[in-house]
Amino acid sequence: MDRIALRGLSGRGFHGVHPREREEGQTFVVDVVLGLDTRPAADSDDLARTVDYGVVAEQIHSVVTGEPCDLVETLAQRIADRCLAQRAVQEAEVTVHKPQAPITVPFDDVTITIKRSRT
């Protein structure tokens, strides 16, 4: 399976279980790796036979900036669902970074990574 990766997509979301996270929001960063067969697109040089990663990026951004959820696990699942809605995409690996997580000790980042496939 071939892979198309988008890294560092960011947006301000209001996800989290703490009231402050819901009120103030924070930046979330997303990396996705899409698994698909790119041979039909390469053979025909036709965008319609692959995935338009610009559209996927916009959809991911709308999920991040859209309806709040409590858990980054839920956010990652929503993003994976959007990716798998693309006809050519057979699997999606999604990493959500929450670099401003409410942790009381020094840290660089909190991430969750999920991998989902078409059933």
How would you describe this protein?
The protein is built from 4 helices and 4 strands, in the order βαβαααββ. It is α+β, with helices and mostly antiparallel strands. It has one domain (2-117): GTP Cyclohydrolase I, domain 2, CATH 3.30.1130.10. A 4-stranded antiparallel β-sheet has the order 1-2-3-4. Helix 3 packs antiparallel against helix 4 (72-84). The model has no long low-confidence stretch (mean pLDDT 97).
What is the gist of this entry?
The protein is of the alpha+beta class and 119 residues long.
Number of strands: 4
Which strand order spans the largest sheet, edge to edge or round the barrel?
Answer: 1-2-3-4
Low-confidence stretches: none
The helix tally amounts to 4
Structural class: alpha+beta
The named CATH superfamily:
GTP cyclohydrolase I, C-terminal domain/NADPH-dependent 7-cyano-7-deazaguanine reductase, N-terminal domain
Portion in beta strands: 25-35%
CATH fold-level topology: GTP Cyclohydrolase I, domain 2
